[in-house]
Amino acid sequence: MTSTVTRLTTGMLAAAAITAACAGAASAGASVHPDAEHRPGAVAEQGTARGHLVSATHLTAMSAGQVRTWLASEGFDTASVRHGVDTYRLVYRTVDARGRATTASGLVVLPRSRDRRLATVSYTHGTTSYKPDAPSTSDDVWGPGAAVTYAAAGFAAVAPDYLGLGLGPGVHPWKDVPSETSASLDMLRAARHFAPRAGRVLDGRVFVTGFSQGASSALGLARALQGGADPRFHLRAVAPISGAYDFRGAELPALLGGDVAPKMAVAYTSYLLTSWNRVHGGIYEDPSELFREPYAERVEKYFDGTTPGPVMLGGLPDTLGDLLTPRGLALLRHPSGSFAEALSVDAEVCTAWTPRVPVRLYKMAGDEQAVTANTDHCAARFRDRGAAVPVVEVGDRLYGGSRHLGSNLAGTARIVRWFGELS
Question: What pLDDT band is residue 363 in, cutting at 50, 70 and 90?
Fold first, then answer.
């Protein structure tokens, strides 16, 4: 597997962890709470309410200088860095895609500033298929880099791992916005409970952003917060980056038409069909109905969270024609049944609410994974509902040869400044 393909998969599909050139600088400054109950650095308590903390683990401490070096090693902009940071992994109570009690994990990053009361940025990450690549368990810069950027600028930053990733049990329900929303909301609640332990208070102001898969998650969380899902949080602004918001009207045609990088089209299609069959049912009874052999017998295993990205990519074919049966291709061309219903639910982040706070949608022309028609369609749907939502072109920026991944770096640099102006 080439390094370019490996890096491509860290956007909507994380493959292998990208080793940070200065990871040693981050860990060198680490300090750990001594009063661990279960393991060094962990503070645990009991409780069953959604958002209740199960444990909190101090991961790393970095000075402002270390933050700049660490972020720059993977191309994150450092112009907004004003503070050092402390990073923490939280494990908290939430619900799964069927509303049953479960736990999830996520990353909290706090600035090493004198401010006791902090506004919060929620950052929801791009797709990963491998549990350890989530923000709170990743050992690279890419996974936690955006959250560290916001914290170093003076915000409290939270980055949920989502269900089934990081330390979360079970299989991740990919592209299931309702469960991404509940996991993100409960992560905010967990962070609110945790903050006083670090001598801080989250003041209730929430700025919401996310990249790729996390762009839809960000809009889902924003919709819930605006709707009063938790009166302790007040939505201030929303800034998602490079989302696949209109999977039926924009992304599927691009997958079938060759406008998405072919290997990525294979990976996303496999992930989508296996995930939505788990969540919604009715898409297939046996993988062989939609997937050709030998892929049918192993495709579900590739997306159960235990298979590293390069292994998954290496085990899948290079084209949709080699991956899918005629029935599988027909389903993509003409969605029906539970698949069509799931596509409608997925699109509701742009079709079923009207933002009353500032929203900007960020994109990069020529995105080879989340084609920009997604962003244009979402902005048009908001306009249809009377909300003027500008689309911001972030300019040219590559990461690992990918414009999609580059948009996360370029978008984060712009958004941290915008959120700072609004706060």
Answer: very high
